[in-house]
Each structure stands twice: as C-alpha cells, then as structure tokens.
UniProtKB/TrEMBL annotation:
Domain DUF7691 residue range list: 1-190
Protein name, per record: DUF7691 domain-containing protein
InterPro entries, A to Z: DUF7691
One Pfam family named in its UniProt record: DUF7691
Lineage: Bacteria, Bacillati, Actinomycetota, Actinomycetes, Streptosporangiales
C-alpha cells in the first residue's frame, strides 16, 4: 500500500460552517452525502457529514470517520492540488525534504503538512488520515522564502521537484484578491 499527501487549497472559514455557503443547504447536503458516504468503515457517514456540514456537535467517537469527512468537504469546497512528487512517499522523505530546505536556508518542517492537525476540531484520530494545515497567513511567508531561495543548490532532482510542488501549493494559497477567494492549505496523509 502506498502512502502520500493529498493537498487541498480551501478556505478554512468555509470548512467551519459549510452550510452557510450554499443556497439550499438541505439539497446540497444530500448531494454531498450521495457522493461521499458509502457506508464503509473508513469513509464519511451520513451522520458525520450532517454534523460537520451544519456545524453540529460531533457525536461519534471514530476520529478517522471525521477525518475522511473533512477530506470530503475539502474536495467539495476546495481544489485538490498536484501531488505527483508527494504521492507515494514514506516518512523518511519528509526528513530528506527538510534537509534540502535547510540547505537552501528555508526553515520549515514538512511534517507540519500532515501533523499540525485539523483546521477544525475533530475527535482524536488514532491512525489515518494524518491531517495538517497551513493558514494563508502562514503559507505566504513560506512561499516568499522559497521565492528567495536558490533551489538549484539541491543536487537531487526528486527533492527539487518536491520542493517546487510544495512552492506551487503555497502560491495557490497566496494568489487571492479577496477574503472569500483566499485559500488555506489542508493536507491529508494516508
């Protein structure tokens, strides 16, 4: 089985109360449930989707169900970003990327992409998905640091491409003209 990052550009404010961003919340919820709730042990359930969509208290104890529900909401209200250089990857890849970033003078721990936690409260997740996020105000300075860095100093082309792809994710988050158009970065690892 392969593991990797699934990155999404999505406005975190929308994830906090998705129903307020739709014209007909009940119909929209039914559409999302039909699309994402397959009644299996690992994906979103109709109940978890309803609770998160309407901002209700989360009643389930299965954190992974809510993690995959959050991912479904990111797919619905955001855009999945290219991840060819981050899927598949194992944990040692994060260390290699961090070492390469340090080499070019950029301070960032790429495990924050998957371990900084959910942008909205969820029950504890014991296994997968691992979730991390960067708010837009965090993504912009990191993107600027990568703008200024000399990536050509990195000799490993695979590392260079992973860093370029990460840089693209950060740029996607910073290319907004209005608050409603602004995106944060939410990543899932499974």
């Amino acid at each position: 089985m392969s593991y990797g990052i699934m990155p999404y550009a999505v406005n975190i404010n929308v994830l906090r109360s998705p129903h307020t961003y739709t014209s007909d919340p009940d119909d929209f919820l039914a559409w999302i449930q039909e699309r994402h709730c397959k009644d299996n042990d690992y994906g979103p359930t109709r109940e978890s989707m309803r609770e998160m969509f309407f901002g209700e208290p989360l009643t389930g104890a299965e954190g992974h169900v809510y993690g995959y529900t959050l991912k479904a909401l990111c797919e619905t209200f955001g855009a999945m970003l290219p991840n060819a250089n981050w899927y598949p990857v194992r944990m040692r890849w994060f260390d290699a990327v961090q070492d390469a970033l340090t080499q070019i003078g950029v301070r960032f721990d790429p495990t924050d992409l998957i371990y900084s936690g959910s942008p909205i409260p969820l029950p504890p997740i014991e296994d997968f998905p691992s979730i991390g996020h960067l708010r837009r105000d965090e993504a912009i300075p990191l993107g600027e640091a990568l703008d200024a860095a000399d990536i050509s100093l990195i000799s490993d082309e695979n590392l260079t491409e992973s860093i370029r792809e990460l840089h693209g994710w950060l740029k996607q988050c910073s290319n907004a003209e209005t608050e409603m158009d602004s995106y944060d970065l939410v990543c899932f690892y499974h």
